[in-house]
Design a protein that fits this description.
binds S-adenosylmethionine, Nol1_Nop2_Fmu_2, RsmF rRNA methyltransferase first C-terminal domain-containing protein, transferase
């Protein structure tokens, strides 16, 4: 699709002598990236077993470029949640948020989950991660990715930012606003962004970004870190949005966003009344690095009110009778029973991450770690539970190799022949959990979810 002429004219004016190199980058092959999921495997472990031509992405320790011939998205390791396919520049953002285990973190515009799963990996299952996405269908995909990556401590909500801000005022240590934008950096892969582009659309995006940041500001604790990012070049949505926000919020200061070779800085001369520190923000250009276009700013909330309201925490489910079948399953199948604050959504049983507030009256896709379904007189474990378990946490497992025909048969939904005790078995690929099977009389009934099965 041809690029909008008004866009090209504007870029020519901004970039001057660099414009030709920039324009030529749209005809070059896109850099392909994947990120290793440390909840499943260490980077060293993955590099040892991966059948791909990998080379490191300099700005993210978990990130790699892969070869032209590689198809990591179609490998069993992808189903096992060992990897997330992510555009390399996008990995710079999660690295800037850099949450620590135990912190309270919000990803406000999170679908499909590239950055959320990056943050979850760095949190190592400790603390609370709220991943929000207002678009319902996209929120569902976000939740599926959170599950595939075996994340235990995430809640997925489907709300507008201002609704979340009412509940979570002054609550988070770190917030990421990976804002909806005009997507100029994605024109190569997203023809819709290209077709939708207009100067008015850029203006509308900038105004929406400011609204989203306004809600984020209300939810951040004093001392907390706010990271703002876009995948567009327009100064209105980058230096412009951040400068307007800084004008309205003197309690926020821009901090130095760590730059790597080839990264550029935000341009004070590309917006009116540039915020002090706009030169500490980052611009990633496709003609300067191996990756798409991005912008990122790191802000710190220097002061502000402390926790203003009485918090409402969820009522815990104490009905041991309702949980009886779950505990029986766990005792029989797992070496250690996951426990804590349980909650039921219909017949679906979840464990809430610790420190979570009540989710009453909010739209929630996933209130925590999905354990499974309470059926009549029995408990059926979820796929999410399988993917979050390590082999040693399960009594019975069926270990397969990535290139074994049995692995592909399992992924297609076929039953497998197997020996062992009757009951639930964790199916693993090279030691990484892939899903459940239920064994009886030498046949392992396939519980790999129907919607995820590979074509036969
Ligand atoms: C750039 S994408 C996020 C990509 C995501 N962070 C990732 O790494 O996979 C922006 C997201 O913001 C969502 N969005 C649209 N309007 C929004 C709003 N008013 N508030 C919050 N998010 C919004 C879009 O549906 C989209 O999923």
């Amino acid at each position: 699709m041809p690029l909008p002429q008004l866009f090209l004219d504007k870029m020519r004016e901004l970039l001057r002598e660099e414009y030709e190199a920039f324009a030529a980058s749209y005809d070059e092959e896109k850099a392909q990236g994947l990120r290793v999921n440390p909840l499943k495997a260490s980077v060293q472990e993955f590099v040892r077993i991966a059948p791909f031509a990998l080379s490191g992405v300099p700005w993210a320790s978990e990130g790699f470029y892969y070869g032209k011939e590689d198809r990591p998205g179609k490998h069993p390791y992808h189903e096992a949640g060992l990897i997330y396919i992510q555009e390399p520049s996008a990995m710079a953002v999660g690295a800037l948020v850099n949450p620590l285990p135990g912190e309270t973190v919000l990803d406000l515009c999170a679908a499909p989950g590239g950055k959320t799963t990056h943050l979850a990996g760095r949190m190592n299952g400790e603390g609370l991660l709220v991943a929000n996405e207002p678009h319902p269908a996209r929120a569902k995909i976000l939740s599926q990715n959170v599950e595939r990556m075996g994340v235990r401590n995430a809640v997925v909500t489907n709300e507008m930012p201002d609704r979340l801000a009412e509940r979570f005022s002054v609550f988070f240590d770190r917030i990421l606003v990976d804002a909806p934008c005009s997507g100029e950096g994605m024109f190569r892969k997203d023809p819709d962004a290209c077709a939708e582009w207009s100067p008015d659309h850029v203006t509308m995006c900038a105004s929406r970004q400011l609204d989203i940041l306004e809600s984020a500001a209300r939810m951040l604790k004093p001392g907390g870190r706010l990271v703002y990012s876009t995948c567009t070049f327009s100064p209105e949505e980058n230096e412009g949005t951040i400068s307007r926000f800084a004008e309205l919020h003197p309690e926020f200061a821009l901090e130095d966003a760590q730059a790597y070779e080839g990264f550029d800085r935000g341009r004070a001369d590309w917006t009116s009344d540039a915020a002090p520190g706009i030169g500490e923000t980052l611009r990633l250009w496709p003609h300067r690095i191996r990756g798409d276009g991005h912008y990122a700013a790191v802000l710190r909330k220097m002061d502000g009110e402390e926790q203003p309201v009485r918090r409402k925490y969820p009522k815990s489910l104490t009905d041991r009778k309702a949980l009886k079948d779950y505990f029986a399953f766990a005792e029989e199948t797992l070496t250690d029973t996951p426990a804590g604050e349980f909650t039921l959504f219909g017949d679906q049983l979840y464990l809430l991450p610790s420190g979570m507030l009540t989710l009453d009256q909010l739209k929630v896709v996933r209130p925590g770690w999905h354990l499974g379904t309470l059926k009549k007189n029995r408990f059926e474990p979820s796929h999410a539970l399988a993917l979050s378990l390590k082999g040693e946490e399960v009594r019975n497992r069926l270990s397969l190799h990535a290139d074994s025909p049995q692995t592909f048969a399992y992924l297609k939904g076929e039953a497998l022949q197997a020996e062992g005790p009757k009951g639930w078995h964790l199916v693993e690929v090279d030691g990484y959990s892939l899903g459940w099977g239920k064994l009886a009389e030498g046949t392992l009934k396939n519980h790999f979810p129907k919607g995820l099965r590979w074509p036969g």
